[in-house]
Structure to design on (333 residues):
């Protein structure tokens, strides 16, 4: 079973955990009256055993219990399961609503409780859970649409520059692994992935004959090539990405000493995500074939970032890239 099964028409499952049999029977009856499946356990360890075997949507747990109390059970649930928790206790000194929520519970019930209060609190938690799951599904669908648009834009660049087809995806692949090695969070990694796939989008404004020229570029042609980060930024800046994707694209040819382009940014003025992307871009570009030269190989690519570690490239990013390569990273395709 998966977490998403809770919103696909499956009956909601509630696990009640209490060491008092009379309380277990009472709550089990109230839960079933609301039309939900109800499982029971007499302590936290029994509850964990149940959750290992069955998908549980909501856990209603007492606090003071033998073997594993409700506080520890709630902690285990938040770390390892998807269920929401309602805490309850007959001792007000044990916990307050604020403390219960701080410890990870969605609600708190003080014993003794009325049937009406119990029904309201349980149904509120379940309704909120179902709403959150629907929002999660909507966000997933939206992300799929965004991914489709991003990949289509990337393929547009590949179609105009067949010699470097797949470059953007390979850069994104390496940048993601560098970011993971550096311990970046999911949001930053997602931002790096999108920016990596789109970082050369501005090349759609460069004549195809320049992109595929089999000899070295002239000064004028190279100046034209150097406009692509700005063009990419101008295309993306009005799209309301949740992260600074356009700015990362804008900065992927900057250098830590200020010698890059198009803005001449240096040091901390360059976004951390752009510092990662610039290293991944350099490594992939040197490793792969270009219209005017064969691939130089990974040894030369890594020698470049080692040589200019701290000058052009962020030392932490270089170290993370070298670590990634030492762990047998391979480009797809």
């Amino acid at each position: 079973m998966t977490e998403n099964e809770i919103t696909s028409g499956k009956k909601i499952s509630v696990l009640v955990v209490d060491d008092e049999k009379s309380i277990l029977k009472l709550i089990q009856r109230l839960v079933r009256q609301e039309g939900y499946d109800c499982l029971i356990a007499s302590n936290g360890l029994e509850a964990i055993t149940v959750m290992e075997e069955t998908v549980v949507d909501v856990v209603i747990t007492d606090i003071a219990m033998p073997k594993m109390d409700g506080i520890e059970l709630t902690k285990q649930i938040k770390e390892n399961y998807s269920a929401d928790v309602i805490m309850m206790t007959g001792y007000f000194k044990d916990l307050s609503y604020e403390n219960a929520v701080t410890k990870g519970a969605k609600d708190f019930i003080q014993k003794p409780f009325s049937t009406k209060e119990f029904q309201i609190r349980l149904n509120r938690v379940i309704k909120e859970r179902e709403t959150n799951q629907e929002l999660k599904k909507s966000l997933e669908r939206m992300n799929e649409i965004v991914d489709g648009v991003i990949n289509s834009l990337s393929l547009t660049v590949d179609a105009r520059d067949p010699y470097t087809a797949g470059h953007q995806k390979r850069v994104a692949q390496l940048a993601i692994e560098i970011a993971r090695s550096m311990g970046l969070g999911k949001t930053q990694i997602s931002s790096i992935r999108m920016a990596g796939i789109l970082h050369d989008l501005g090349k759609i404004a460069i004549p195809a004959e320049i992109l595929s020229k089999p000899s070295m570029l002239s000064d004028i042609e190279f100046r034209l090539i150097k406009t692509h980060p700005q063009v990419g930024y101008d295309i993306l800046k009005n799209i309301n990405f949740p992260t600074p994707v356009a700015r990362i694209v804008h900065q992927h040819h900057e250098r830590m000493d200020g010698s890059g382009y198009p803005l001449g940014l240096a040091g901390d003025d360059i976004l951390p995500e752009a510092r990662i992307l610039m290293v991944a871009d350099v490594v992939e570009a040197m490793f792969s074939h270009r219209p005017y030269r064969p691939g130089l190989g990974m040894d030369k690519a890594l020698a470049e970032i080692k040589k200019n570690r701290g000058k052009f490239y962020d030392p932490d990013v270089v170290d993370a890239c070298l670590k990634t390569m030492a762990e047998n990273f391979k480009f797809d395709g």
